[in-house]
Design brief:
It contains three helices and seven strands; from the N terminus they run H-E-H-E-E-E-E-H-E-E. It is an alpha+beta fold. Among the domains are: 64 residues, 2-Layer Sandwich (Trypsin Inhibitor V, Chain A); 31 residues, no CATH class. The strands form three sheets. Strands 2-5-3 form a three-stranded mixed β-sheet. It has a two-stranded antiparallel sheet with strand order 1-4. The protein is rod-shaped and about 165 Å long. It starts with a helix and ends with a strand.
């Protein structure tokens, strides 16, 4: 057993001799670094693709779950564009979901009466009163007729404004001649 113990001690000494600190070792290489691309203002899916193409990972920063990145717009990023990031590192994208476009409201003025511009309406040619008015019947001012049929039955049609029996209710078009 002494022999075995001596062999183990010898082997241990030889192994330790090979672990000298004087031996030159290559310095560990620094991880590769990548500049973070500028993706602010892009749609979420376009920004994600640009970051992944740079060899970086994407993390979403939103108040809601980002299920369909194309429906979101990048409004900020961390680290900022151009910052060197270790290859495989992550870029956090602050995104917002744009609101659907709505037409601008039309300002409403306080209620005012609607004033329409006068329109010219073609008037039919005015009827000319006969140059000669028929002689007035008996100058009785208390003559009245129920309707134009009664005026015609009395043989007094047409009645002219100012003649006995003339009333506005018998002159439908208001031209001064009743029961035409």
């Amino acid at each position: 057993m002494r022999k075995a113990l001596a062999i183990v001690a010898l082997l241990s000494a030889l192994a330790l001799a090979g672990c000298s600190t004087n031996v030159a070792r290559p310095a560990p290489s620094a991880p590769a670094q990548v500049a973070a691309p500028n993706v602010t203002g892009l749609a979420g899916d376009v920004a994600r693709d640009a970051i992944q193409a740079s060899g970086l990972a994407v993390e979403w920063d939103s108040d809601r779950a980002v299920v369909l990145p194309s429906n979101w717009t990048v409004v900020g990023q961390d680290p900022a564009a151009g910052t060197l990031v270790a290859a495989g590192g992550k870029v956090t994208l602050k995104v917002t979901k744009p609101q659907p476009a709505t037409p601008s409201p039309v300002p409403v003025e306080p209620s005012r009466p609607v004033v329409q511009e006068p329109q010219q309406v073609e008037q039919p040619p005015a009827q000319q009163a006969p140059a000669e008015q028929p002689p007035a019947q008996a100058p009785s001012s208390n003559v009245s007729y129920k309707n134009c049929d009664a005026v015609r039955a009395a043989g007094a049609a047409p009645l002219y404004r100012g003649q006995p029996g003339y009333t506005a209710k018998l002159d439908r078009d208001g031209d001064g001649i009743a029961c035409e």
